[in-house]
Amino acid sequence: MDSKPPLEDSFYRKVQTFVLRKGRMTEGQQRDYETLSGSWCLPFNNLPLNYNSVFDNTNEVTIEIGFGMGHATADLAEKNPDKNYLGLEVHTPGVGRLLGEIRKRQLHNLFIIEHDALEVLQVMIPDNSVQAFHIFFPDPWPKKKHHKRRLMQRNNIDLIVKKLAPGGYLYFVTDWLEYAESTLELLENTANLKNKYQGFAEKQSWRPQTKFERKGLEAERPITELMFIKPLQD
Fold first, then answer.
1. Could you tell me if 119 and 12 are in contact, meaning their C-beta atoms sit under 8 angstroms apart?
2. What is the distance between the alpha carbons of residues 169 and 186, in angstroms, rounded to a whole number?
3. Which residues are marked as active site?
4. What does the domain layout of the chain look like in residue ranges?
5. Fewest CB atoms within 10 Å of the CB: 28, 100, 112, 193?
6. What is the C-alpha to C-alpha distance for residues 20 and 118, in angstroms, rounded to an integer?
7. Closest CA to 18 of 65, 86, 74
8. Residue 13: which of 118, 91, 115, 89 has the closest Cα?
9. Closest of 37, 40, 38 to residue 25, by C-alpha
10. What whole-number distance in Å separates Cα of residue 16 and Cα of residue 149?
11. Nearest partner of 86 among 66, 52, 112, judged by Cα
């Protein structure tokens, strides 16, 4: 008789939105990863996070899904010490790089979970608890046969909105126009979300430029932004 998988594994997706690329870490990234991950990387587990215990305060929480090398993440955390930031990433060199920024800038409002973001959201993030989701330049999976791997899919968006607090926002940026158009259509047809703009959003002046953004501009691809709000409950 075949055994059934554990209940907590029942949500695992057969199609992942990322390819796990370990990459080569620099000596500095390796050192920071080995010495700092125990302090600033939260282990993945099947228990919901207690933000107050993690950050030692009751400030609002922003989650960035896929922070890459973490430049924008560190900049935002440094400029907004009254806000808490949680970065979700599977790329080990990027984790090491951001840990180094946490050390260098002496940040105390930024933690990392090195695990699949959707699994983290499913089991570790309480419903209606996140003030903002930042999704900056996710893998566009440009080939049509790979569109099923994109992060911005119906089920994934519904999960993100479920975790978003009333009054909070979802901020999506891409340099792939077709991805922006398909995501706009999905978000426009998502219950409990309202577009802050008519169509695409204005560039948010407070958002730091990322490495992927610079590559997109060098390739003369348009940078497209979306900003959606979860309305306050009556």
1. yes
2. 15
3. 139
4. 58-229
5. 28
6. 14
7. 65
8. 118
9. 37
10. 6
11. 112
Tokens, residue 2: 């075949």
Beta-strand pair 84-88/61-65: parallel
The token pair at 212 is 């992927």
pLDDT class of 212 with cuts at 50, 70, 90? confident
pLDDT digits (tens, 9 = 90+) for 69-87: 999 999 999 999 999 999 9
Dmax over CA atoms of the chain, in Å, equals 59
Tokens of 78: 């440094």
- Domain spanning 58-229: which CATH class is it, in words? alpha beta
The secondary structure of the chain, three-state, reads CCCCCCHHHCCCCCCCCCCCCCCCCCHHHHHHHHHHHHHHECCCCCCCCCHHHHHCCCCCEEEEECCCCCHHHHHHHHHCCCCEEEEECCCHHHHHHHHHHHHHHCCCCEEEECCCHHHHHHHHCCCCCEEEEEEECCCCCCCHHHHHHCCCCHHHHHHHHHHEEEEEEEEEEECCHHHHHHHHHHHHCCCCCEECCCCCCCCCCCCCCCHHHHHHHHCCCCCEEEEEECCCCC
Q: How much is the pTM? A: 0.90
Residue in this structure with the two tokens 């430049």, named with its chain if needed? 71
Residue 182: beta bridge partners?
none
Q: In Å, what is the CA distance from 198 to each residue of 127, 153, 166, 201, 222?
A: 28, 21, 21, 7, 18
Alpha carbons 3 and 22: distance in angstroms, whole number: 32
Whether the predicted pLDDT of 141 surpasses 90: no
